[in-house]
Amino acid sequence: MTTEAKKVLVIGSGPIIIGQAAEFDYAGTQACRSLREEGYKVVLVNSNPATIMTDTDIADRVYVEPISLEFVTEVIKKERPWGLLATLGGQVGLNMAVQLSEAGVLKEYGVQLLGTTLEAIKQAEDRELFKEAMKEINQPVPESDIFNDLEEAVAFANRIGYPIIIRPAYTLGGTGGGIAHNEDEMYEITRRGLKLSPIHQILAERSVAGWKEIEYEVMRDSADNCIIVCNMENIDPVGVHTGDSIVVAPSQTLNDLQYQMLRTASVDIIRYLKIEGGCNVQYALNPHSNEYIVIEVNPRVSRSSALASKATGYPIAKVAAKIAVGMTLDQITNAVTGETKACFEPTLDYVVTKFPRWPFEKFNLADRTLGTQMKATGEVMAIDRSLEGSLLKAVRSLEIGLDHIELKKIAHESMEQLIERLHLVDDERIYVVAEALRKGISVEKIHYITKIDTFFIEKIKNIVNVENELAANGLTEDVVRLAKRYSITDSVIARYANTTAEEVKAKRKEWNIVPTYKYVDTCAAEFESQTPYYYSAYATEDEVRPLGEKSVVVLGSGPIRIGQGVEFDYCSVHSSWALRKAGYQSIMINNNPETVSTDFDISDSLYFEPLTVDDVMEI
């Protein structure tokens, strides 16, 4: 193969929009770096100037051009790449690949589509083909039908009964979809869905809202090796888009039988679809039995893959890019351990919580209800040894003025008002659950209304119990130790114990209650980790190697929100690189799983922590 033939065209995802934040910038950047490591020349097309991806350091040649058939064709004509990598630019990249292929451009210029084939993309994306594929391998899908006509869709809904979920074909983040509870809503949502789908097609399916939503992140190579990178469980039941759900990894409430059953299904699905690279499978699981259905498959990296990468330390996009050019999992080294191969499945000895960041404070008249269409602009991720700890860290990371799982504005509401609020599925529901527990509403009642698994409600109740202990008995060593295990800050402990944060700090020193920092190493400390990637926990052993005098802390910018996109992430990455060049070691502190700055090899040390005075000062 000549060097000229080793040129690969990577398609980015264009501007940041709701439903598509920085996760594809992160995936695309990783892919470009990964391909160059293997000696490929990389040509990149992307129209977003704020991302690190369109930086001259990332690809050999960058075209900041519209991602349209006309422009990309021109680039192909000029550059004559050997291959096209489209599965890392989100839905935009994927749709572009389909267009280029259908217009005959790829054939005309002899460009190979790398990684997942067009057939596989279509089988996963086209609702009708997907349903057929699942039937072939006996994977259950909800009763549904495809429509291009409004009246036919409504007649179908009236026949099988409401609620009905409407999913437009080839759209991103559930755009145009929704749940119809009656005929009027069915007309309204179907009309919108047909209009917004590029092929004017919707899928109407029986709703399984209220079931558990579980995701598996799977990798497959051309030799049919498959691994599960990790599985995730949505705290919010089915009915809320996974991008708008609070998600934990690994799953917390599945028994071994359910875990293995869905794991086997995931491997069967990715093998049948012949996806090469990363893929995300979403399931609904009946909370009262082992019955499950396959909701959808993303034949590309998604927001969930960015989360799974950062949660496990397993670089999905990096590995997917190498698989796309024909390498197999047993040939790729795991960059985190430096010793194991990419065919080792990651092991987690901690809990990760992902919490979405919504833009509602900017749009105070907007509808805050959450459904099948994503409204979050970004998200934060937190790691801890306990679920309580990682949930509270995530709340602190959101930068919405909260330091704890409590909303001031609902603190004075009566039981009746809170019960009414629990019926609302919106961005504040988790705080309402905590407030309901404080008011003495039972775990069972909250579960009955919200369909959130009692396991998660019990965990929030543990936090409320600590608050009550502090209020009743003040600062005792046992309760302070437990509060810190749950990652409750000194100022919050002081608030409940009716004292000052200074007093709490003094007591902690006296009792030697200090945070320790642990590795994220993909292998639960089975092998030495080469990359210093840490999170804090109140445990016994500290695993950090302090960098000392010649090091500089770079504070990242937290979650993506309106008015603050990836441009600050771009700056953080550059500052890290500049410090390295100047002979300093850089320490990155950030909590956004979608960005390049939280990649394990950008700085000399990475701390995945909330950007608050308490957390940063401990580091």
Summary keywords:
single chain; 619 residues; alpha/beta; Rossmann fold; Dna Ligase, domain 1; D-amino Acid Aminotransferase, Chain A, domain 1; seven-stranded antiparallel beta sheet; five-stranded parallel beta sheet; 21 helices
Explain the overall architecture.
The protein has 619 residues and is α/β, with parallel strands linked by helices. Among the domains are: 4-114, Rossmann fold, CATH 3.40.50.20; 143-206, ATP-grasp fold, A domain (Dna Ligase, domain 1), CATH 3.30.1490.20; 212-348, ATP-grasp fold, B domain (D-amino Acid Aminotransferase, Chain A, domain 1, 2-Layer Sandwich), CATH 3.30.470; 516-618, 3-Layer(aba) Sandwich (Rossmann fold), CATH 3.40.50. 37% of the residues lie in helices and 18% in strands. It is built from 21 helices and 21 strands. The strands form four sheets. The protein has a seven-stranded antiparallel β-sheet, sandwiched between helices. Helix 14 (429-438) crosses helix 16. It starts with 6 loop residues before the first strand and ends with a helix.
